[in-house]
Write a structure and sequence with these properties.
heterodimer; A: 110 residues; mainly beta; B: 115 residues; seven-stranded mixed β-sheet; four-stranded antiparallel β-sheet; globular
């Protein structure tokens, strides 16, 4: 079993729709959770971090965490073509290990 | 401006050679990481370090070595024991919930090719 698993893509949504990206993790000791965006050929960039159960909103992005279910998600509202990228979920343990999922590629069609 | 710098951007290695990838940060972050990314795949953790003079193996450490003699620097050596080293290598630094909030930055990456 992989430590971090993301829903297999690719995911395609029309412009203006909500994109939903999901991630599950296996280590119950994980404390910090991150979503990164990676454009083709570029380095990942951090877009959201979440530490407590519930929702965290930042502009058009909402991260959701459920530690009991070992599940974290990212919602992108009013999706734009510029949101087309690969989204990476990362899980960080108290021991300092930071593990990534394989990513989900999102395409937003105009 | 603070940031994280990797060099070189492109590197070619002959069979049997060791090569060292540089990673330098001026963000004052304690934690630093090395990842490998193969085409169409996610990031796999090679090594990580939480503090100077200490580091831990990640999930794919075989054939790699690191050092952390200074807070700012975390070089990665790809040894001849690494059988399939051609990949995109990414260095990152992390500061959890610091004065400026959570900060995580990646370098621009090094593309290593075995020739």
């Amino acid at each position: 079993q992989k430590e971090v698993e993301q829903n297999s893509g690719p995911l395609s949504v029309p412009e203006g729709a909500i994109a939903s990206l999901n991630c599950t993790y296996s280590d119950r000791g994980s404390q910090s959770f991150f979503w990164y965006r990676q454009y083709s050929g570029k380095s990942p960039e951090l877009i959201m971090s979440i530490y407590s159960n519930g929702d965290k909103e930042d502009g058009r992005f909402t991260a959701q965490l459920n530690k009991a279910s070992q599940y974290v998600s990212l919602l992108i509202r009013d999706s734009q073509p510029s949101d087309s990228a690969t989204y990476l979920c990362a899980v960080h343990t108290n021991a300092g290990k930071s593990t990534f999922g394989d990513g989900t590629t999102l395409t937003v069609k105009p | 401006d603070g940031g994280i710098t990797q060099s070189p951007k492109y590197l070619f290695r002959k069979e049997g050679q060791n090569v060292t990838l540089s990673c330098e940060q001026n963000l004052n972050h304690d934690a630093m990481y090395w990842y490998r990314q193969d085409p169409g795949q996610g990031l796999r953790l090679i090594y990580y370090s939480q503090i100077v003079n200490d580091f831990q193996k990640g999930d794919i450490a075989e054939g790699y070595s690191v050092s952390r003699e200074k807070k700012e620097s975390f070089p990665l050596t790809v040894t001849s024991a690494q059988k399939n080293p051609t990949a995109f290598y990414l260095c990152a630094s992390l500061n959890l919930r610091g004065a400026r909030g959570t900060e995580a930055f990646f370098g621009q990456g090094t593309r290593l090719t075995v020739v």
